[in-house]
Design brief:
14 helices, mainly alpha, two-stranded antiparallel ribbon
Length: 340
Amino acid sequence: MRKKILNALQYAFFLGLGFFLLWLSAGNLSEENKRFLKLSLQNAEYVAVALPMLILLLSHYIRALRWRVLIKPLGYAPRTINTFFATMLGYFFNLMVPRLGEVMKCTILAKHEKIPADKLIGTMVTERACDFICLVLVFFITIFIQFERIHSYASGWIHTLFYDNGGFKITRLSIILGALIFIAFLLRWIFRKYASSKWAQKILQLLKGIWAGISSIRHLKNKWIFLAQTIAIWSLYILSAKAGLLTMEAVSHLGFDACFSIISFGSLAMIATQGGIGAYQLTIQKLLPIYGIAEGPALAFGWILWIAQTGIVIFAGIICLILLPVINRDKHEISTAHSA
């Protein structure tokens, strides 16, 4: 009961944070940008939203194929259709409750393919570790291909933080550095003092699991297939952002440099709140002005991209929920007959 209450509070918090960020992003717009927002949403090519949705669906399918590559060394060969359905339902349930998707994804495939769920959870660690590395690489590529733009953008924030009327804010810098050093020493002291505690062991176990997931990739028999599928997944993410630009005239001229920025910062925003609501729109709103896009159209574009990403998960998730028992009906009937 206590766990259910905590999960409900967690869900309410992240959902509430998302709506707060939505209110913040719209409330801070000037009257001119509010007018741009309204016009952009009215004039958007919503039929064109289907293209990024289809590209994202293809990336999810390749993700399912990649998951099968990770499962095969365990001695199991699940059907592609079940692996894909489980993958999509994982995304679907993640929209409802944070981290529920990973559990449901493994549970669904374990049920229909007779694979121990704990073994499937191990493959999730590898997937998450791999995606983290890919996101870091995309960030580096984003900075490399548009260093001047990102540098000037970051410099503006740094100038605001550390300079005042042409003078260097040594006090603020000292406070920030001092706080970081204090936090580092505090964490070190806590881990040393409570090294044998359950929560410290859980954190260390998590870090070990991440490292095990990263290192396990080296032992895959089909590591080159795994690598090619990973590149394909992230390339399709970039391509989906490029296709999304076609939905609005105000952003249609932007190139792949903007797409890399959208994927880099947008991926973090999707983690920040429940389903990325609020955080994703606000991130795009603040990001696109460095490419000369007003905040009004930028916010509208953030909404359109979010609708495409979330819409395909909801639509495909519902279809998978309906078809999953139908696809596996014969299999269960055979299993029941044998057991009888």
